[in-house]
Amino acid sequence: MATIDLTPDLLRRLARRNNFPVPDSGMVFVCIRGATPADLADNGFAPSKAIREISLDYEHMRCTFVQWKLDDGVLALFAGSTVPSRKSIDAALAGKTKANQVIPGCFRYVRGRHKGSSPSGHDAFRQNIFLPVQRTRDDGDFDLADAIDFARSAKAEEFVWDNIHAAYNDDAAKPGYSSEGCLVVCGFPSTTSGKFVERGPWKAFRRNAYDQTGGQQEFTCMLFEADEVARVAGGKDGDLIQLVRYGSRGVLVGQVQAALVRAGFEIGTPDDKFGRTTLIALYEFQKRLFEQQGADCVVGPETAKALGIEMPTLAGGPALGITIRPQPLMDDVIVIKPAGLDLADIPDRFTIEVVRAAQASQRKWGVPASITMAQWALESAYGKRMPAGSNNPFGIKARPGQKSVAAMTKEEIGGKLVSKQEPFRVFDSLDEAFIKHAELLGTSKHYVKARMFRDDPDAFADALTGIYATDSQYGQKLKSIMRKNDLYRFDLGETGPVVMDEPIIVFRESIASEFLQIGMSGKRVTELQLELVRLGYGVGDVDGKFGTLTRGALLEFQADNEVPATGVLDLATQRAFEMPIERPLAPARTEATEQDLIDRGSRIIKDAGMGRIASWITAAFGALGIGNSAVVNAVGTAGPGGQAGNALLPFLVDVQRLSEAGRATTAELARLAGEAKTLREGLGSGLSPEAVQTVQQIRGLLPQEFVARFPELRQFLDAVNSAAVAKPAASNVFELLAGNLPVGGALHSVVQVLGTVGTSMIPGFGGSAAVLGLGLLGRHLANRIAAARLEDHRTGMNIAR
Fold first, then answer.
1. Which residues pair with 545 in a beta bridge?
2. Is the pTM of this model over 0.70?
3. Half-sphere exposure of residue 729: CA atoms within 13 angstroms, side-chain side
4. In a 10 Å sphere around its CB, with 0-12 CB exposed, 13-18 middle and 19+ buried, how is residue 744 labelled?
5. In what helix (H) or strand (E) does residue 427 lie, and over which residues does it extend?
6. Per-residue pLDDT reduced to its tens digit, 99-127
7. Contact in structure between 357 and 431 (CB atoms under 8 Å)
8. Rounded distance, CA 276 to CA 321, Å?
9. Residue 50 — left, alpha, or beta (φ > 0 → left; ψ -120 to 50 → alpha)?
């Protein structure tokens, strides 16, 4: 067993590391869990005292109580226990009583009677503030798997009362002591009944505090684990990172409070004091990030990193190995608490975690939070009846490959209820389970009728009867729970937010510029845009301007990474960028084709298709040596021959495509034959000589065996020689092409520009070389635009395009 020398200097270093306030004078209590005084019989004061580390067994008193006289710089040690006895723990597990263990922190006690005027009542030290305690629920010890009891409120009548009193055993070497959770000092008290008379270490402990402190009524009490005491005793200030926990005070606490508020947690009014609401918020934050086993209620290096806080060392320098962005002080933060629900308004047997999970699922899938909360209560017996470690209160079965836990369930088989073991899905958090459950109600075809009553929870409940559950009273049971607990107030409506305690944070000008938001510009915005694009979020042009597209992309990123969707690059979002979740994209998106986008109504892809048609024909004309005048005379004409001319472009493209493929289906051949017949009949007075020459030259490009397969096509080409029409209104090739594209589309604008350039820079714009070049350019542009649009869709970069 390691021995540690306790001194006032070591105790001050422990207090400073944990940001605990130490009074200027008087007496302070210090409790050390997992260590006993080296000399159990020595209760006198001295500048230095020794303790020995020892493992807890819940049978013997294996903790040390220190009385520290600040004015004199001396210490006195007493054996005792800060954990409940084995007898009390066993009784609690059997449901006969409640046992608890106070978590480390800084508390206050006042002189007073333990158990008042009852027969066992005696002078002691009464708890003067709320104390957070653990309650064992699975075995005979206390660890991070056990829940924290935060009491129903911060009111004294709601406290878990853990006083400092006598242990009813004056020999620390012998097993046994009286504690269900109170802190007890070795010895006996003088009780009201007179059955016991004060003796042992307790006698000196009480009298020191009652008689030698000049009437001091209130005592600060700091509780530490022995391993932390040993770590600080053997460590250098520059190597010890400061901590923040229950009872801490000061600037670091303010930074934690500001970070928790930004992360969406309620801490009351930020005041630089680590109290009950800050503890609850931290506990929920840690469970969400690190699960139950990581929720130690202490802001150490990992939690600080997640919150975006730089924790200094005990020497005051930067924390070793941590490179966190600076956190604004509370002086830079204004908190505006909106009208909403206070934690005290949560109904009995419900928790803030359940309320938040239900409201989160309503935001995503529209299922009233009141319905989900009532189903949680009914199906899991208010969270008590669900597969161990599953976070699955709705009994969702696991599919092959999903993480699961086996549990017994009852199913109706052949009209009889049969018990059988089934795999139930394991969720990482209650939020995830609620959202998955709401997804079922919000999307399944079985609940279409229920979804008609999103604004009427009672009707929604009735619509679930006989479908969600065969119980004919299922809807009535849900309504009874909703009405009894007034769960309707938790539903998210249009008239005002009912979201649990989510304050509005306003930063003063000194800090507001640190967080990128809409309207800003510059290098940092460019870096943000590039990072969003790299992760698969479309921002439009990377121009260093924080506009609506950048904000939309950031909101999508925040939603995917489960951080508050603020549209602002705040600290929580910066943290998410350090370890971003891979963007989830469905196969229907990643494997989409151009035709899929056309079917969905993509304007850009349709424009590109029209551009390919027009540009291919233009290039073909140019390759044949046919200039501008021939093209504009061949297509887009007015009069009887105009209809045939307008249909000529897509018809020739179809012919070219099939000739390149070398094969065609019967249906395609029949269609082309019909089009050719229509074109031949629509020639009217015929085409101009230039158009006739154009068609004849294109016919020369087609393989004769291909033409032979289309009797109607051959008849059409043969009939061209007799056709003649008036000249078109278009003045050049690309004016004609623009007329074939929807006004306002991307390609329409490109082609208009090309037409203007061609008219102004190429004399006559009639040379076959120019026609060939611009035709190829137009096709290239169409391909590029279509490919870019398709890539945007497949990677999720498109935003309403």
1. 521
2. no
3. 6
4. exposed
5. none
6. 889 999 999 999 999 888 788 889 999 98
7. yes
8. 30
9. beta
